[in-house]
Write a structure and sequence with these properties.
By secondary structure, this protein is of the alpha/beta class. 46% of the residues lie in helices and 16% in strands. It has 15 helices and 13 strands. The protein has a seven-stranded parallel sheet, with helices on both faces. Strands 10-9-8-11-12-13 form a six-stranded parallel sheet, with helices on both faces. Helix 4 runs parallel beside helix 5 and helix 8 packs parallel to helix 9. The longest helix is centred in the N-terminal third of the chain and has 18 residues. The chain is elongated, with a radius of gyration of 22 Å.
Length: 381
């Protein structure tokens, strides 16, 4: 049995954390045993414990700048490697790799790290220089950005280390019509909107980089179009160190009388998105992948995303979703308008989107791909 130690410095609800939860849900139990070292408690810790995982937690979140903290993490990883006969250490993001690499080299244990993006800082470059036996990226875009970042120091990086593209995934969802209708009513009662109207959804951290102001500007353009049917917009998520930004968005909704409801966090993004006809990603910075896009596709919501980053590798414009010009509200408005005016097109795109998600972004297949990669690294030692 191969024993994998996943090292993760975060414990939130983002794509990297979702991926780690899937490694436990879909683990090939006869072949693998997973352990998780988290630097802090939070939703990821709670979810992994709920799934029955072996979760180890540091007493306090460590700081890279503090030597004593690095030593404490080194000792913890060393003890876990020895105590559980760990076969390979998998670090999440460059920060995880910076804490794990030296220990793995000293212990002679294979080490890989997953660059979930964005590849843009000194940590990403430094992690590439440190001991590792493989790098994982979630899209061609992320891999390209990581390699661009490495250019000045590439001659120092062992090129025999493989770079593996492993797509992110989401679990198949089989919500009954009764469950979807109940979810609609729940949010409608909280937001005072009509659950019978078409719904445009967005799930994200509430921060400027996610482009919510672009979405609101697009909606403001659409509500002045008398040829369109009535519709509503729900945004699920909480402010991420940008409460003032959220306050400004809510004020805009009030001032312009927009049919937009800020619902707060959802405990079940899949079920919430199943109530929507469309799922929007409006990020003004290129997304390395786009987890909520595939979550929406899996439940039959048509994805609409900007023409940059990882989303353009997921969406084939006019076939399984729609692409708009990044940061241009009128372009986003045009694509939403297209679907509101043409329910048959919306249904066709939704069907293809769901099929593509089931075929390419099924979480079980994704984790099987990851485990095959881990096996190759372990067996090549």
């Amino acid at each position: 049995m191969k024993k994998i130690l996943y090292v993760c410095p975060t414990s939130g609800v983002g794509g990297a954390e979702t991926f780690l939860t899937q490694t436990q849900i879909h683990v090939d139990k006869p072949a693998f045993e997973n352990h998780y070292l988290l630097f802090r408690s939070g939703p990821l810790y709670d979810q992994l414990k709920k799934e029955g995982a072996h979760v180890h937690l540091l007493n306090t979140p460590p700081r890279l700048s503090k030597r004593s903290d690095r030593r404490l993490v080194h000792k913890k990883i060393k003890d876990l490697i020895n105590g559980y006969n760990i076969s390979l250490v998998h670090s999440t993001m460059a920060e995880g790799a910076l804490f794990s690499a030296w220990t793995c080299k000293q212990m002679g244990v294979p080490h890989v790290w997953f660059q979930h993006g964005k590849a843009s800082g000194w940590m990403d470059r430094a992690a590439a220089l440190l001991y590792h036996n493989g790098l994982i990226v979630n899209s061609h875009f992320t891999g390209k950005m990581q390699r661009k970042l490495e250019n000045p120091v590439r001659f120092l990086i062992p090129r025999e280390n493989p770079i593996e593209k492993i797509l992110m995934g989401t679990s198949e969802a089989h919500w009954s019509q009764e469950e979807v209708e109940a979810e609609k009513i729940k949010w409608a009662e909280r937001g005072h909107y009509d659950p019978a109207l078409p719904l445009v959804g967005m799930v994200c951290r509430i921060e400027k980089g996610k482009g919510l102001h672009i979405l609101l500007d697009a909606i403001n353009e659409l509500i002045n179009d008398s040829s369109l049917p009535l519709f509503q917009v729900v945004v699920w998520g909480e402010a991420f160190q940008e409460q003032a930004y959220l306050d400004n968005l809510k004020q805009q909704v009030k001032n312009q009388n927009l049919p937009v409801f800020f619902a707060g966090a959802t405990e079940n993004a899949s079920l919430s998105l199943a109530t929507c006809q469309m799922v929007v990603n409006a990020s003004i910075r290129p997304e390395p992948f786009g987890q909520t896009i595939i979550e929406g596709m899996m439940v039959g919501a048509v994805p609409i995303a900007p023409n940059q980053g990882g989303p353009v590798e997921i969406i084939s414009n006019g076939k399984n979703g729609l692409i708009f010009k990044a940061e241009q509200a009128n372009s986003l408005a045009k694509q939403i308008r297209t679907l509101l005016r043409d329910p048959k097109l919306q249904a066709s795109l939704a069907s293809t989107a769901k099929h593509d998600a089931q075929q390419k972004y099924n979480a079980k297949r994704v984790i099987s791909h990851l485990e095959r990669f881990h096996s190759r690294i372990i067996e090549s030692r």
